[in-house]
Amino acid sequence: MTCSVADGGIGSRIALCTIRVRDILKERILVSRESARQLEEAVRSLSACGQGSENTSNGDELIVDFEGVEGIAPSFLDELITIVEAIVRDDSQRTWKRLMIANPPTRLLLKFEAIGRGHRMSIHAQPDGSWILTPCDSSAAHG
Prior knowledge:
two-stranded parallel ribbon; disordered C terminus
């Protein structure tokens, strides 16, 4: 787990909080909600990421790095998002603006996009293959 501050452009700085899944989970294929719950402590421990740093928002981006993982099931991703949502809800100081899935073990499939929609989040694949999850604009979610 790491936390760093990067240049966000136009005089701003952003906090980047990273969890490396293989440092916590030894399985190469992650299929269960229980496996995702094993990441909860690590996500909670990053709740101070970015706090106290000048000119940063509080935890702008949570990065979950799946390097070395060979597969994830929809239930694993659903539970991971649920955990992040619960932490944000429980900690009024926590406001991650986006969740990045780095080094995903598969391309972004419709079933993963559907899970995001179920959490009122949009998921987009990036040119490097990573996925970016952001809260849906309420007007876009209803239109």
